[in-house]
């Protein structure tokens, strides 16, 4: 192929990705709307849409009959049969979901675990679940791959889990194990990093170019950073480990873990314990805290954790100057008890110009944020370079 031919093909691929990206992010669009969004002419859009239909990535349907003004324009939507498998291994459960390219959750299962999962057992359970779904919920679906959101440090280049301390995984070749068990492509990423991407694309940080995301889960606290509209991964892919920072604690009485890090002090397990729950999801924790917030022991623990969290967030504000901080998981529950007070506490400790326009927002995708992020890691390749599926 000549240089000119390669240039023409690369432009066409970019235009295909642009149209697919629009209907993926924003939902079904008329051809007329796609023409306006892309700046391409109508015939080019029609040709590109036809190619995406032939690739099995989008469908076209008749326009809304209620629209009677002007020439009817077919509506383009992502093909609902295209899915990714999203997986989130945690210390107490393995969550697996089938997520459509339209972001619809086709199926989801939570498998409680009495003992810590091993990488090998994780791969086995994922493969078994996919096989089960292919015979039922996903019969006829086209599975692009498996995305895993892992609570630990994941090396970008090969998906090696360098350290997932709460799971006890060190240098675990999780990508290769799951690929061998399932026979389909696999992408592995840090859970909070993937949650950051999901919230930036579809959730609370949508349209925000400078944001910090902190996720609180059973394995502790992770995070992610958006700068100039782009996720910041770091040299090895390990950026955003806010939970491993040592927080400034103003009074000795607030300290619970000697030389502890943030996730030792601001802890889901401590909150569950103070409300008398052995285990529970974020909804159950939130309900229990709300019901017992007037109990001195509960109120004291909540305020202690909020004080320490505010200090940690103010440090992030001084360093990164975000427009918004998005909190997910139990951190959203903790903040939601009084968001305005938490914002005030953060601004009080931050440099005034850095925090003057700061907003603290709950994660909008709720319990699905990590799963949507994990699926997005699989969809990324087809969105950037659409191919037949």
Automatic annotation (TrEMBL):
Lineage, broadest ranks: Bacteria, Bacillati, Actinomycetota, Actinomycetes, Micrococcales
Gene3D superfamilies according to UniProt: 3.30.420.40, Winged helix-like DNA-binding domain superfamily/Winged helix DNA-binding domain
Designated name of the protein: Transcriptional regulator/sugar kinase
Pfam families: ROK (PF00480)
The UniProt record lists the keyword Transferase: yes
Superkingdom assignment: Bacteria
GO molecular function: kinase activity
Protein family according to the UniProt entry: Belongs to the ROK (NagC/XylR) family.
InterPro entries given in the database record: ATPase_NBD (IPR043129), ROK (IPR000600), WH-like_DNA-bd_sf (IPR036388), WH_DNA-bd_sf (IPR036390)
Keywords: Kinase, Transferase
